[in-house]
């Protein structure tokens, strides 16, 4: 891929990433992809379990464990949603902090486009859901269900279909997901907070203040932070604010900027340690305990005939794609950002369709929105699964249409002819690179001449009389 030519405004949308940012995105998405595959396996296992031994599955979901005196005698399903997902949101908080201080969101002008795209990608699904339920006379309580994107599930789909997206498109998808997570967190905090216990909330805030102070003082040791984190989580849960907010708050407090001599910031180091726990255990277990719903023919038919569930499906499939694509196009037009000449707007629409995979956070919001109505909660979960599946299939078709182009771009991005560990595309302006390449070409030419000479000598020996 040739270097991006300067535009009149000096800004290029989906242009080449810097080498450190490209490496970070590659590492982050590699971990998310592995977690996404585990998530897929857990979701399928939950569906098989629930549809073959429903009573046993429900008994496991409803099994209670925990200290009742602390208000934590919770079902396993509840522990997964409030406890395990706190780990997931802790990692999301670190990702958001890093994006704000060192990633795509650090420059307000560069951040405007993905932020607008993400906001439109949440507003449009909510609007589609609302319109469907106004026309159909359904409940407006589930408006937030189709607003979330599950980056791990989306990347698992990419891994399964074998589509190699160029790094710029992958970074765009990751940034969208990070901003999406931020607004999902705000939705959960604002709209799904029950009656507040101010004493517990005050204790949680004091715990967070102590957490911040210890970080600033440079105190180290897991034996300090893990007990404190558990205390903050327990207080936040008992305060009435959703307990996952504690994870986000602690993640945002970590320093994610690198100081002189640091290979990784503390936030990046902790993210590297915790992400496998989140992607490999917390989120798959949540899926296993939450995704098991009845998918009989009647249940599937009901998804497309009831306004609540139809609104969720249309929000994920139609709202997400049109919202992200429309927001991106409008933002690019008004900021005069020029699309990378190697890509097309069809690629943006394909990524926007892929973002319609809602799963983890959508399931969580569905449980919160219809808490107390087990039947409707199960129907909304089925709608999330079906909507995410349709979005995945649509994105698969759209991405497959351009797969040869993507592979060619990715191969060009990763080409390293001088074998120095740095892709050649990042060394085109380096005179030392051209000297190395000239030496490599000369060596190969000499080897070719030597092989030709030896082949000619062998031929002469064969033709000579014995």
Description:
The chain has 466 residues and is an all-alpha fold. It folds into two domains: 13-192 and 242-414, Up-down Bundle (Na+/H+ antiporter like fold); 428-461. The chain has helices at residues 19-52, 54-61, 76-101, 108-136, 151-161, 167-191, 198-216, 222-239, 244-253, 266-290, 297-303, 307-335, 345-354, 359-369, 374-400, 403-414, 431-463; strands spanning 12-13, 64-65, 74-75, 338-339. The strands form two sheets. A two-stranded parallel sheet has the order 1-4. Helix 1 (19-52) packs across helix 2, helix 1 (19-52) packs across helix 6 (167-191) and helix 12 packs across helix 15 (374-400). The protein is globular and about 85 Å long. Mean pLDDT is 84; it is low at 1-10.
Keyword list:
2% strand; 2 domains; 466 residues; globular; Na+/H+ antiporter like fold
Please write out the topology.
Blueprint (H helix, E strand, L loop, with lengths): L11 E2 L5 H34 L1 H8 L2 E2 L8 E2 H26 L6 H29 L14 H11 L5 H25 L6 H19 L5 H18 L4 H10 L12 H25 L6 H7 L3 H29 L2 E2 L5 H10 L4 H11 L4 H27 L2 H12 L16 H33 L3
Parallel strand pairs: 1-4
Antiparallel strand pairs: 2-3
Helix pairs in contact: 1-2, 1-5, 1-6, 1-10, 3-6, 3-9, 3-10, 4-6, 4-12, 7-8, 7-9, 8-9, 11-15, 12-13, 12-15, 13-15, 14-15
């Amino acid at each position: 891929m040739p270097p991006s030519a300067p535009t009149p405004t000096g800004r290029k949308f989906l242009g080449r990433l810097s080498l450190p940012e490209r490496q970070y995105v590659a590492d982050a998405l590699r971990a998310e992809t592995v977690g996404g595959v585990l998530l897929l396996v857990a979701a399928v296992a939950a569906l098989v379990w629930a549809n073959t031994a429903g009573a046993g599955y429900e008994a496991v979901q409803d099994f209670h464990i925990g200290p009742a005196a602390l208000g934590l005698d919770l079902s396993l399903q509840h522990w997964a949603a409030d406890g395990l997902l706190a780990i997931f949101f802790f990692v999301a908080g670190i990702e958001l902090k890093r994006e704000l201080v060192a990633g795509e969101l650090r420059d307000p002008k560069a951040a405007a486009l993905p932020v607008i795209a993400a906001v439109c990608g949440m507003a449009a699904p909510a609007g589609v859901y609302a319109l469907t339920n106004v026309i159909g006379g359904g409940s407006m309580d589930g408006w937030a269900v189709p607003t979330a994107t599950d980056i791990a599930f989306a990347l698992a789909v990419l891994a399964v279909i074998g589509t190699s997206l160029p790094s710029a498109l992958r970074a765009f998808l990751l940034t969208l997901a990070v901003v999406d997570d931020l607004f999902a967190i705000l939705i959960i905090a604002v709209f799904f907070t029950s009656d507040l216990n101010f004493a517990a909330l005050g204790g949680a805030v004091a715990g967070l203040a102590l957490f911040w102070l210890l970080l600033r003082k440079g105190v180290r040791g897991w034996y300090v932070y893990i007990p404190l984190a558990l205390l903050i989580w327990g207080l936040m849960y008992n305060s009435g604010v959703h307990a996952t907010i504690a994870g986000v708050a602690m993640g945002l407090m970590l320093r994610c900027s690198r100081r002189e001599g640091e290979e990784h910031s503390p936030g990046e180091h902790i993210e590297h340690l915790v992400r496998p726990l989140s992607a490999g255990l917390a989120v798959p277990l949540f899926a296993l305990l939450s995704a098991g719903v009845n998918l009989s023919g009647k249940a599937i038919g009901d998804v497309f005939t009831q306004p609540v569930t139809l609104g969720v499906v249309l929000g994920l499939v139609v709202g997400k794609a049109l919202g992200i694509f429309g927001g991106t196009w409008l933002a690019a037009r008004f900021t005069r950002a020029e699309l990378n000449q190697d890509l097309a707007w069809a690629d943006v629409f394909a990524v926007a369709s892929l973002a319609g995979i809602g799963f983890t956070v959508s399931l969580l919001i569905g449980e919160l929105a219809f808490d107390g109505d087990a039947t409707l909660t199960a129907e909304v979960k089925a709608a999330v699964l079906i909507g995410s599946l349709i979005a995945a299939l649509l994105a698969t078709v759209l991405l497959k249409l351009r797969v040869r182009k993507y592979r060619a771009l990715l191969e060009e991005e990763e080409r390293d002819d001088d074998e120095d560990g740095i892709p050649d595309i990042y060394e085109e302006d380096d005179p030392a690179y051209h000297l190395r390449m000239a030496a490599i070409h000369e060596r190969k030419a000499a080897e070719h001449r030597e092989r030709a000479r030896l082949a000619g000598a062998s031929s002469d020996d064969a033709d000579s009389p014995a």
